[in-house]
Amino acid sequence: MKRALLLLALAASVALALALPWGPLWIGPGALAALAVRRWGGGNPRSAAPPPAAAPGGERAQETHRLRQMVESLDTAVIAVDADHRLLYLNPAGQALLHLSEKPIVGARLTALARVPELARELDRLATAATVRLDRLELADGRVWQLELVALDDPPGSAAVLARDITGLARLENLRRDFIAAVSHELRTPLTSIRGYAELLREDAAASPEQRREFVETIAANARRLERLAQDLVTLSSLETGQYPFHFQLLDPGQLLAPAVAVLAPLAAERGCRLRVEAAASGCVRADADALHRVLLNLIENAILHGGAGAEIFVAGRPAALESGKQAYRLEVRDTGAGIGSADQARVFERFYRVDRSHARANGGSGLGLALVKHIVREHGGEVSVTSQLGQGSTFVCTLPQAPGAAPSSSHV
Ligand code: ADP
């Protein structure tokens, strides 16, 4: 009995370690697979008979049954093969990993069962090593596996394979890495500028008071840019993790247009843009007023900054019916500015995507504005889209679901 408990404890610790999605995967899992092979001899585990309750050797049979259940329920693939790579044992996760629709026959060749030449190659490495561990094995079909192979001596030349498909995690890891690289890049430019101008201020004794003021202005502008980047990153992160403090209530989005236009009227005047509310019909949506105000500010500010001097900007809001027949409220920011090419239109909602990098940076944007707009609108159950033509201008449209009971509309989005 003591031995049975020991084995169970080992199996449980392995099962727990294997349950971790990423990280300390390797706590002697080979032992478990070895156990599986030795004890079950590679028989079809699914068709195993229930353990005899009180028969002679019943304790041993029960122990085997428990261990088998454990290995069968693991979401880590456990595969055992003999020296010729013929199958000795495979748990359901292994069957799924190898994309096998049917339970394979014990004794079938691994290469005939699944096209994973990388696995055969790693198994061959066991000729000279007791174990092979790979945190990340990229397969030709695009999948990524985490893998451990253990050489077994019974039968001689056999091996146990433990594997997990970590394709999704690897993709997330890549996204995280790209994101960190992009943020570092965004930080570097203003920081370099701040340092450079600060050094000039300190060392350029011949600089006139006007030049010194210019240096200080540049430092201040870059500090503002960093501040905005930090704020937008915090907002984006809170949106992505579901922590953004939304306060939803029923409101009329038509009422939000004039205040947003008022905030940006001075910037529009400074840039020689004409900005006006074209229509502000009333509607009723379940929304967070501050978040929608932010959406409008982002879209209008973009129209001013990226549309170009002299652009006309129209802001409008009205109820409209979606193609699906559902009632929506349509918010629109249209400009007659530079426009966005069709290839770029598909990407402007991505984080840090800019059509013209130097121009956009010079305007002080964080490159996260439209990503925030997209997130906020989605949190309202709506969609945002852009249509644009180079040299003709752009139209950004947000459609928000009308609150139930709101008056239906006859116009279409
Ligand atoms: P930012 O404005 O900080 O650069 P955004 O995410 O708000 O970042 O916008 C991404 C990019 O989309 C901008 O850099 C710009 O190239 C382009 N863009 C957005 N709105 C417009 C517009 N109204 N007209 C032309 N280009 C635009």
The CATH architecture term of the largest domain is: 2-Layer Sandwich
User: Which ligands occur here?
Assistant: adenosine-5'-diphosphate
Assign the CATH class of the largest domain: Alpha Beta
- Mean pLDDT score: 85
The low-confidence runs, each spanning 5 or more residues with pLDDT under 50, are 1-30, 37-54
Determine Rg (CA atoms, Å): 31 Å
How are the SSEs placed, and which strands pair?
Elements: H1 2-19, H2 29-40, H3 58-73, E1 77-81, E2 87-90, H4 92-97, H5 110-113, H6 117-124, E3 131-138, E4 144-151, E5 159-165, H7 167-203, H8 209-240, E6 249-251, H9 254-270, E7 274-280, E8 285-287, H10 289-307, E9 312-321, E10 327-335, H11 342-345, H12 357-362, H13 369-379, E11 383-389, E12 393-401
Parallel strand pairs: 7-9
Antiparallel strand pairs: 1-2, 1-5, 3-4, 4-5, 6-8, 9-10, 10-12, 11-12
Helix pairs in contact: 1-3, 2-3, 7-8, 8-13, 9-10, 10-13
Bound molecules: adenosine-5'-diphosphate (ADP).
Residues 298, 302-303, 306-307, 335, 337-338, 340, 348, 353-356, 360, 365-371, 394 line the site of adenosine-5'-diphosphate.
Please supply descriptive tags for the structure shown above.
binds adenosine-5'-diphosphate, alpha+beta, Helix Hairpins, 5-stranded mixed β-sheet, 3 domains, elongated, Beta-Lactamase, Heat Shock Protein 90, 413 residues, 5-stranded antiparallel β-sheet
Description:
The protein is of the alpha+beta class and 413 residues long. The protein has 3 domains: 2-165, Beta-Lactamase; 168-242, Signal transduction histidine kinase, dimerisation/phosphotransfer (DHp) domain (Helix Hairpins), CATH 1.10.287.130; 246-413, 2-Layer Sandwich (Heat Shock Protein 90). The protein is built from 13 helices and 12 strands. The protein has a 5-stranded antiparallel sheet with strand order 2-1-5-4-3, sandwiched between helices.
